[in-house]
Amino acid sequence: QVQLVESGGGLVQAGGSLRLSCAVSGRARAMAWFRQAPGKDRICVATISPSNVYTDYATSVKGRFTISRDDAKNTLYLQMNDLKPEDTARYYCAARTGAGWGRGVEYNYWGQGTQVTVSS
């Protein structure tokens, strides 16, 4: 069983930065950050492999967002720089306990999400 609790969301002006955190309890392998804006599908914006060696990003955030994991602190992070109004969404931390990783695999544990709002 894996439990995930996100924090760090808020209101920021365009061009600003935020760092999201996800406290992890239990044994998670691959992890990811997803986001969902009102009326839109949930998309995976960043994912990290179980070894923390490999990462992958959605095209829309590549070069601006960085996913990382501190296993000693049992925490997953998403550093978001140069935020844009279109980044406004609820952001979710997700974990996978099976083999495999990436933006196309199924994640079986989810947090409750944290809201990020970017004003223009």
Keyphrases for this structure?
single chain, 120 residues, mainly beta, seven-stranded mixed beta sheet, four-stranded antiparallel beta sheet, 11 strands
Description:
The chain has 120 residues and is mainly beta. It is 0% helix and 49% strand. It contains no helices and 11 strands. Strands 2, 4, 5, 6, 9, 10 and 11 form a 7-stranded mixed beta sheet that branches. Strand 7 (65-70) and strand 8 (75-80) form a beta hairpin. It is globular and about 40 Å long. The termini are far apart.
Gap from first CA to last CA = 40 Å
Give the class from helix and strand content and strand pairing.
mainly beta
Q: Globular, elongated, flat, extended or rod-shaped: what is the shape?
A: globular
Kindly state the percentage of residues in helix.
under 10%
Radius of gyration: 13 Å
Largest sheet: 7 strands, mixed
User: Uncertain runs with pLDDT below 50, 5 residues or more?
Assistant: none
Question: Could you tell me the mean pLDDT?
Answer: 96
Helical stretch tally: 0
Query: What string gives the helices and strands in order?
Result: EEEEEEEEEEE
Beta fraction: over 45%
DSSP strand count: 11
